[in-house]
Amino acid sequence: MKIAVPSNKPGGLDAEIAYHFGRCDAFTLVDVDDKQVKNVEVIENVGVHSGSGATPPEILASSGTDVVIIRGMGAKAIGLMSQLGLKAYLTSARTVREAIQEFVEGKARPVTAGDACTESTGVPESPMA
Q: Which helix or strand (DSSP H or E) is residue 102 part of?
């Protein structure tokens, strides 16, 4: 299973989770098998907020991502993730490593439409914080 976590630079397991999914610096992609981390890759976020034609959910779907773990996400991104077959989970973790651990322990919860944050504030409040 490939899990993506929006991350502040430089990305990686010890990176802080970015609070704004669409405007994060990077996505840390973590391959997990049998609850163990098998591979870690960092890709720069070159989504529409950065001048690209693809949205962050489209970028993640094309990278083979199955699950996205977030602290917050707007309604448009939640809808697009669902359309693309990506599963999103909320976490209370501060780092990518902690978020992956929460997910494999079953502590992260699936995102619902009611969890959408407002993009005007810049820093969403996570219902799990």
A: helix 96-104
| Cis peptide leading into residue 110 (ω within 30°) | no
User: Which two three-digit tokens encode residue 123?
Assistant: 């820093």
User: Strands, E, within 8-66: which ranges?
Assistant: 26-33, 36-44
Handedness of CA 18, 20, 23, 29 (dihedral sign): positive
Q: In 3-state terms, what secondary structure has residue 49?
A: helix
Q: Phi and psi dihedrals of 56, rounded to 5?
A: -55, -45
pTM for this entry? 0.85
Nearest to 4 by CA among 54, 44, 53: 44
Q: Are 113 and 94 in contact (CB under 8 A)?
A: no
Q: Which of 49, 45, 46, 28 is nearest to 37 (CA)?
A: 28
Q: What is the pLDDT of residues 44-71, one digit of tens each?
A: 988 665 556 788 899 999 999 999 999 9
